[in-house]
Amino acid sequence: MSNTSRGFTLIEVLLAILIGTLVLTSVYGIFSSVSGARNRLEAEGEIYHQARVFFDRIGGELSSLRLSPLGKEAAFSSGKTLDGEIFFEFNTELVSPLLQQHGGISRVRYEVRQEEESAVLLRSEQILLTNLAASEPLVFIAGLQTFQLRYFSQGQWQDSWSGKFPPQLLEMTLELESDDRLIPFRSSFVLPGGRG
What we know:
- The chain has one domain.
- It is built from one helix and eight strands.
- The protein has one helix spanning about 10-65, and strands at about 75-80, 85-90, 105-115, 120-125, 140-155, 155-160, 170-180, 180-190.
């Protein structure tokens, strides 16, 4: 009786290991790629959420713009801070829920402040019908790379605004950074009573 069973040769074993390694490497590459895409989408989703909340909030505040000035301030004003950063402020009847018990008109200020690698958009609010101090500026958007304002009045766009009345349109452009990519956002708002 002869024994015809034989084992695998060294070449067959090495070839099987090589094929197994190639399959496992490609499966790992696919999972790594899917994981990276998921992380990138989560980061971009957070940025889109920030921008949506900002545009919803500013849209509500601007649609509730209080046209009659209170005190020395114009109903709507904008300019540059001492550091050369953009700000704009206005009177609105839409106040933060925590401050609503004190009055129905507030002065809201949005201001860009440069930080180490990017800028932040700050928001502060002061109730105008009481003697409350203005709220401390809170970070509204972080990771801001670009923030621009344009004003439309009397058939033309302007880069700055000063006037007794608000402009007819306000256009905002901002860019937020996500994984070394800039994501642009732009929106325009019709201002009530805007005559410019």
